[in-house]
Amino acid sequence: MRDRIVALIAAAGRGTRMGGSAQHKKQYHMLGDRPVLAHTIAIFEESPLVDEIVIVVCPEDIDHCRREVVDKYGFQKVSQLVPGGEQRADSVYQGLLALDPDPDFVLVHDGVRPFFPSALIGEVVQAVRTYQAAVVAVPVKDTIKIADVAGFVKKTPERRSLWAVQTPQAFSYPLLLEAYREGRQRKLQVTDDAMLVEALGYRVKLVLGTYENIKITTPEDFVLAEALLAKGVSK
């Protein structure tokens, strides 16, 4: 019996940096002939490794997402639209609690990353089966400076050891659920799922991604996304 793998797509963002209203959030902006979120879902819909897709959305967007994305584009693997919370971590936690039956592994992905190459799903799945926690990342190109509160350079870390983490982030489902419960109890402030697993003392394996796997959060990102689509960069 093979592993059961669920893709959990975080799409409950309010879109403030895109200037989006409740009706025009970044995940629902048209990118080519379909919404950004539809491009993202399609990557997992077409992967034979993914058994089910659960999408976490703003509570007020559930009907819109079902009608204008899931039903309109015929996504068969989408089993649930789960109401999200105030922060991304709250939304992912709600998504984890909604999974039934429990999967073996969960791939957490940002709804506004529509250029993740589907071929990498296999690499991520292979890594998570071996290490229980694996995230897609790329080496940092720029020199990074750590600044003090006054805006002066405090330290320059060695660039060769720095990676920019993306999604999907893949985990053993029991491990990630435990990490979220522990993180909430300790009131940890995190910016990605892997930080919670790291806080439990687990190692997280890096899987080399691509620089085209952008997260669309600003109008400038959307311009780049249009260029990538025109160039033919897609799933």
Task: Describe it.
With 235 residues, this protein is α/β, with parallel strands linked by helices. 33% of the residues lie in helices and 23% in strands. The protein has one domain (5-231): Spore Coat Polysaccharide Biosynthesis Protein SpsA, Chain A, CATH 3.90.550.10. The protein is built from seven helices and eleven strands.
Helix content: 25-40%
Instruction: Supply the CATH superfamily name.
Output: Spore Coat Polysaccharide Biosynthesis Protein SpsA, Chain A
CATH class (first level) name: Alpha Beta
Report the total helices.
7
Helix/strand/pairing class, anyone?
alpha/beta
List the defining traits of the structure above.
two-stranded antiparallel sheet, alpha/beta, single chain, 235 residues, Spore Coat Polysaccharide Biosynthesis Protein SpsA, Chain A, 33% helix, 7 helices
Outline the fold blueprint.
Elements: E1 5-11, E2 30-31, E3 34-35, H1 36-45, E4 52-57, H2 62-71, E5 78-83, H3 88-98, E6 105-110, H4 119-131, E7 133-139, E8 146-147, E9 153-155, E10 163-172, H5 173-186, H6 193-199, E11 205-208, H7 219-231
Parallel strand pairs: 1-4, 1-6, 4-5, 7-11
Antiparallel strand pairs: 2-3, 6-10, 7-10, 8-9
